[in-house]
Amino acid sequence: RKAFSGGIPKRWMKPFEEVLETPTWSYLENVEIDDVLYEHGEGGQAFTKAKNNMMSSVCGHTHTEAYVRWLVGKKFKVFAMQVGCGVDSNAYAAAYAKNFKKQAIGCGVVLGGHTAINRLMQL
After folding, report:
1. Which of 15, 25, 111, 117 has its Cα between 20 and 30 A from that of 8?
2. Do residues 118 and 101 lie in contact, with contact meaning Cβ atoms separated by under 8 Å?
3. DSSP H or E run through 116
4. Rg for the chain (alpha carbons), in Å?
């Protein structure tokens, strides 16, 4: 995004596979497993995704939030899980967020597409 808005020509950009030297990996925007949508989360939080898509959704991206919320109707029950992050806030990769509030460092687990568990590390 920044390269595009900064006028860097596309020919100078490399795909993730090349930069990270992982030629056999696939990099996806999102994936659906057991009727749960997993995505990075840019452009929306898990709750908004779950509500708009009416399907259970797990998102990352927002380093300072971690939760599980449920949407329940007469004929449906879906969850929204925001997983926070697993990034060391002192690492170079997180330097852009040095003025953020404390990051939500933890892990989210989904069992069978119906059970959402979100645990924060005690730091």
Report:
1. 25
2. no
3. strand 115-120
4. 17
Q: Which two tokens stand for residue 57?
A: 């959704």
- The edge-to-edge listing of strands for the beta sheet with 66-72 is 30-33, 36-39, 56-59, 77-83, 66-72
**Non-local CB neighbours of 97 within 8 Å, separated by 6+ positions:** 63, 89, 103
Give the separation between CA 109 and CA 1, rounded to whole angstroms: 30
pTM over 0.85: no
How far apart are the C-alpha atoms of 17 and 36, rounded to whole Å?
A: 26
Taking only the tens place, the pLDDT of each residue in 57-104 is: 999 888 888 999 999 999 999 999 999 887 777 777 777 777 777 788
Integer Cα distance of 16 and 73 in angstroms: 40
Residue 25 has pLDDT above 80, yes or no: yes
- Would you say 111 and 117 are in contact if contact means Cβ atoms under 8 Å apart? yes
